[in-house]
TrEMBL record:
Protein name (Swiss-Prot/TrEMBL): Peptide chain release factor
InterPro entries linked to this entry: Pep_chain_release_fac_I (IPR000352), Pep_chain_release_fac_I_sf (IPR045853), PrfH (IPR017509)
Coiled-coil regions listed: none
Pfam families found in the cross-reference section: RF-1
UniProt-listed Gene3D superfamilies: 3.30.160.20, 3.30.70.1660
Family, as annotated: Belongs to the prokaryotic/mitochondrial release factor family.
NCBIfam families given in the database record: release_prfH
Native species: Chitinophaga rupis
Sequence intervals crossing the membrane: none
Prokaryotic-type class I peptide chain release factors domain boundaries: 119-135
Molecular function GO labels: translation release factor activity
Length: 205
């Protein structure tokens, strides 16, 4: 795996489960950084109580992602007394973690790109170039466009344009995947509470 998306959800559980989501996110961030994995929080959906989250979405890039994902993917069982309901007898709270490989989900084909050439204006008061060296790349399925004009030749600008356009389209596709996954979590009423992939016994404060 080169890049993965990690989603942590309370599965519409009570406030304690939303607190578990926030605590699990802290642990995931800490362990990923300790393992040399570049991890970023993309989105947090806050719950009603401060310090609680309905869901958290992160991206991770680096080596040994498959091993890291295996440690977290599934149901997390958190054993603690409720910090919100002091007399409540329940001590088992759950959060779910879903992980998928971004590269397997992405779709890119160079043939989907249409190129247009145009004249590039130079910096300062220079005259407009007589040769059409600037290149605009259009990703036809999404309509995303990129203009490259900093290269010295049309060939160089075409190469730069393709690189930048691919990065921009993949970023857009990642956003689409995240939105789709978040929608699935919003529809997820009950977490699988069978064999937890990890059990944590720690205060939820």
């Amino acid at each position: 795996m080169d890049k993965i998306i990690i989603q942590i959800s309370s599965g519409r559980g009570p406030a304690e489960c939303c607190r578990v989501v926030a605590k699990v996110q802290e642990l995931v961030l800490k362990e990923a950084r300790r393992a040399g994995i570049n991890i970023t929080v993309i989105d947090n959906k806050p719950a009603d109580i401060k310090g609680t989250l309905l869901s958290a979405t992160l991206t991770a890039e680096g080596n040994n992602l498959e091993s890291f994902a295996r440690q977290w993917q599934g149901t997390i069982r958190w054993i603690a007394t409720s910090p919100y309901r002091k007399m409540h007898k329940r001590r088992n709270w759950f959060a779910g973690i879903s992980i998928f490989d971004v590269q397997q989900q992405m779709q890119w084909n160079d043939r989907d790109v249409r190129f247009e050439t145009c004249r590039a204006s130079g910096p300062g008061g220079q005259h407009v170039n007589k040769v059409e060296t600037a290149v605009r790349g259009i990703h036809q399925p999404s309509g995303i466009q990129v203009l490259a004009m900093d290269g010295r030749s049309q060939i160089m600008n075409k190469k730069l344009c393709l690189q930048r356009l691919k990065a921009k389209v993949l970023a857009w596709q990642t956003e689409q995947l995240v939105a789709q996954q978040q929608h699935q979590w919003q529809e997820h009423n009950v977490l699988e509470r069978g064999n937890a992939v990890r059990t944590i016994k720690e205060d939820l404060l």
